[in-house]
Protein: Catechol 2,3-dioxygenase
Amino acid sequence: MSNLKKQIKANAAAVASALLLSAAVSNTSAQERTGILGIDHVGINVPDMKQAVNFFTDVLGFSAVTSLGPIPLDDAWKKNNHMNPKTGPVSFKMVKAGTGANIELFEYQDNKGSSQQPGGDDIGASHIAFYTNDINKSVAYLKSKGVQFLGEPFLMPSGDTEGETWVYFVTPWGSKMELVSYPNGKGYEKKNPATILWSPKDALKNQTEKSDSKPLSENEIKSLVEGHLAIWNERDLKKREALMSKIYADNIEMVDSHFIAVGHKEINGFVDGLQQKSPNSKFSHIKAIEVNHNIARLYWQNGTPEKPDAVTGMDLFVFENGKAVKLYVFVDGKK
Structure:
């Protein structure tokens, strides 16, 4: 009975890992098909372009970069976009908002649309949240500039957003904005999720690490590739996770001809599946590891002691900040 329970538990874990990997692969594949990489900008209709630009540059400290317009709009465009036919030309200004998506400001001349800001529960109501490491300092500064806040900073006590502090404020023309801060992370991150939400603080940290880091030497890269082989041969989960943290970047992307796995958890699930399918197989390299600047190439074989080259292939690595950030897997096939 004890062995049966162990087998059921092992099967359940394998199924869970497969489902998790399948869901992640499906999401990534959908993103590949659309070609979407992320958010480029957020657009805001403003009543006074000069006022809006001054707020985003002089008060928030952003940079206005590009301008376009005024551009006349034809009747068909106005009809398709549910606009008043008497509204005039539109002008644009693109603002670089620190680390993250840009903000596109647009102003219509002789605007005949509604000047009423949507209420919090109105369909289409939205806001932009700006990240800060010190929310109290940011609030004090903005208040000194006359910015109106809709309450005081609130710290989330539990749940997925535990550790996050936020507060709303409004622009001079009435649009709702938000300050948010979680310098020590959010509650959900403690559960080691497969996907971590993007954050400006992480992007800034990566930029700093990249600027401070020294290029890896050829021997250092070869050592990391050897560590990669050790990861795929390691049967102990904790030891494998420890190796991964040294060799792979947190958001490493492994690209196979049939799927894409992102992060340690998804790759771990795939390695577990391989080891359960072939418990006596082992990876080893066929010839010397090749290195070209921050790129390395590993020719490998996988099989049992009786047939070590049952499957052969090649892994291509891209290294940044001392770790592998990309892993492209090419499989030759079974012999």
